Amino acid sequence: MKRTKIKDLLNTTEFGQQVTVKGWVRTFRNNQFIAINDGSSINNIQAVVDFTTTEESVLKRITTGSAVSVTGQVIESLGKGQRVEIKVEQLEIIGDCDAEKYPLQPKKHSLEFLREIAHLRFRTNTFNAVFKVRNALAYAIHKFFNERGFVYMHTPVITGSDAEGAGEMFRVTTLDLDNLPRTEDGSINYKEDFFGKSTNLTVSGQLEGELAALAFGEIYTFGPTFRAENSNTTRHLAEFWMIEPEMAFYELDDNMDLAEELLKYVIRYALDNCSDELEFLKGRLQEEEKQKPQNERSELDLITKLNFCLENDFERITYTEAIQILKNSKPNQKKQFKYLIEDWGADLQSEHERYLVEKHFKKPVILTDYPAEIKAFYMKQNSTDEQGRNTVRAMDILFPGIGEIVGGSQREESLEKLERRMKEMHIPVEEMNWFLDTRRFGSVPHSGFGLGFERLVLFVTGMTNIRDVIPFPRTPKNAEF
Ligand code: 4AD
Ligand code: MG
Question: What is the pTM of this model?
Answer without folding.
Answer: 0.96
